[in-house]
Amino acid sequence: MSEDGYAGSRKVLERGGSLTVGIPKAIVDRYGIEKGDDVFWSDREGADRPMFIPPGRAELDPAGAGVA
Fold first, then answer.
1. Into how many domains does the chain fold?
2. Is residue 2 domain-resident?
């Protein structure tokens, strides 16, 4: 992953009646994500976009938004 970060897209797939999205290898490597880890997504009303919260970083800031 470059110093500028990562940007990309993934297709949403259906498996076993659930929708899934793969996590890009660059993100997996950067945050040390492993099979079985809990990965959190935060989305608040009025937010511009959802927030990805890697494993072990699910602390909340005072406004209730996840800290990545």
1. 1
2. no
**Considering the domain boundaries, does residue 30 fall inside one?**
yes
Q: Is 7 a member of any domain?
A: no
In a domain, 4, yes or no: no
**pLDDT on residue 41:** 83
Q: How many residues does the chain have?
A: 68
CA–chain centroid gap for 6, Å, is 12
Range of the domain at 18: 13-53
Return the SS3 of 56: coil
Among 37, 6, 21, 47, residue whose Cα is nearest residue 64: 47
Digit-coded pLDDT (tens) for 15-52: 999 999 899 898 899 889 999 998 888 888 888 888 88
SS3 for 33-55, per residue? Answer: CCCCCCCEEECCCCCCCCEEECC
